[in-house]
Every structure is written in C-alpha cells, then in structure tokens.
Amino acid sequence: MVEIDYLYLDLQTCDRCIGTDKVLEEVIAAVTPTLELAGYAVAYRKIEIATTQLAEQYRFLSSPTIRVNGRDICAAVQESGCACCGEISGTAVDCRVFEYKGESYEIPPKVMLAEAILRGVFAPAPSRDCDCYAMPENLKTFFKGKSDKSMADIKAAADSEWRNMTMGLFGKKKEENKETSCCGKDCNPPKMAQIESDKTVAGVKVLGSGCAKCNALEAATKEALTELGMDAAVDHVTEFAQIAAYGVMSTPALVIDGKVISYGKVLKKNEIIKILQKVRG
Asked: DSSP string spanning the chain?
C-alpha cells in the first residue's frame, strides 16, 4: 500500500495550496497505473489542518505538506511570505516553497512530485522523525490571527445588524406605556435586563421562530455536539425580544457561549464541528 497525504491550511483562498493540490492530483493519476502494475495500491488523503489540535496531531510544520508513507517529500522546510494566508489571518504568514534542482517553486513542478512519490516507494530515505514536536511560531501566529479575525468579523456584522435594528425601532413613535416595547411584546426594562444577563451564560442556542430551517439547524448542532463528546443540550430561542437582543435580523442563528456565530443560513454538521473546535478549542 502506498499512502499519500496532502496536508494544507486552506483550499479556498491560498494560491499555493490550491495550485499544489491540482498538480498533485494530476501526478497521482499519472503514476498510479505504474504503482498498481508493481503490485501497490494507492491511498490518497487530503487533510485540512484547521486547528492547532490537528497541527499537533499530524506534527504539521508547514503548508502545504506532501507525505509518502508518512514521510515528508521535502528534506527541510523552506518558506516565503504568503499574501493569501496573510489575508486569511490578518497577519504576516509564511508558507512552504519547494526546492528542486536549485530552483524554488511556490507550486511544485510535476516532475518533482512524480520523482518524490516513486522514490518514496522504491527508495525511501531513512526516517527523520523524532519523538518531539513543537509547533512553529509561524503556524501559531496564523491560527491565532485567523481566530481573532473571524471573531472580529462576526462581532462587526452583529454590531452593524444591531445598529440597523435599533435605529428602526427607535425611529418609530414611542408608545404611551413605557413598560412595553414598540413590538407589543413583553420587553419591559426588567425583562430586557434579564435577557441581557442570559446572553452571558455559556451554552449553545439556536435563534428562530421554530420553522423548518430553524429545526434543521438545531438537529445538525445536536449531532455535532454529540460527535465531539460535548453536552448536546441546545436551547431553541423563539421569543422575539431574546432574538433581538443578539442583534440578529435573519434566522436561524447559532449562538455559542454568548457569541453569535452564524445567522441567516442552515449550517451543516461538519461546518458546526469546525466552528465548535475553533471556538471551544
């Protein structure tokens, strides 16, 4: 069995990861018949290193990384500044460059990958693995920046929605009864104070009227929590005042530990798993 692993940080924005992925797939398609003729089956895996936990699990050193039977095809890590990953994280980030015959490539040439795969099968180099692993500072910077930027974007979007809603509400004529809101619901000051207090309580909530999409998001969230071994309790909030307090203008919305994570769409289980891993570590 020949195991080829492709480990990367991003396949949506990063030109290096996207380009290397395309070239690697073409090379694997080309060399597979030769390997099968020699009696080897080929197993190819793509692994997104989305969290620090995954980086530690796979002893990840640089993006992108190609391994043949568990060994990096590159003898050493060479990197240069990557504007794409810098855009993702909002920080200065370096990504791998591939050295081949005295030249450096952000996207490796096909001949280099073909040689590396065949050499890894028929003439593997001695293992360079050791028992220790220390995550490079470059990756720590990327993951922290990505997390901070994601939370900042979510907060900015929520703040904007809240301002728009507030302007709409207070632009209306005030009612005579100061103890009720313009929506006619039970939004008196004590009630709103309690709602604001509840927002700080840790837990997972789905905000929505109870429609089919809201229920679908709740079900997917419970499945994600269960798969991660977390408490699967989900509070489905349907009361307008509580939803409005989060600044959410479109539902369903997902709230984790007091923070609005998503609104206006039904996330899939795998998307929620990634979010939970990022938010709760």
From this structure: -EEEEEEES-SSS-HHHHHHHHHHHHHHHHHHHHHHHTT--EEEEEEE--SHHHHHHTT--SSSEEEETTEESSSS--EEE-HHHHHHHTS--EEE-EEETTEEESS--HHHHHHHHHHHHHSPPPP---S-----HHHHHHHHHHHHHHHHHHHHHHHHHHHHHHHHHHTSPPPS-TTS-TTSSS--HHHHHHHHHHTTS-SEEEESSS-HHHHHHHHHHHHHHHHTTS----EEE--HHHHHHTT--SS-EEEETTEEEEESS---HHHHHHHHHHHH-
What's the pTM value of the predicted model, to 2 decimals?
0.57
Active site residue 214: yes
The active-site residue out of 14, 82, 95, 214 is 214
183 catalytic? Reply is no
Tens of pLDDT, residue by residue over 174-207, are 444 444 444 444 555 555 555 666 666 778 999 8
236: closest CA among 208, 266, 262? 208
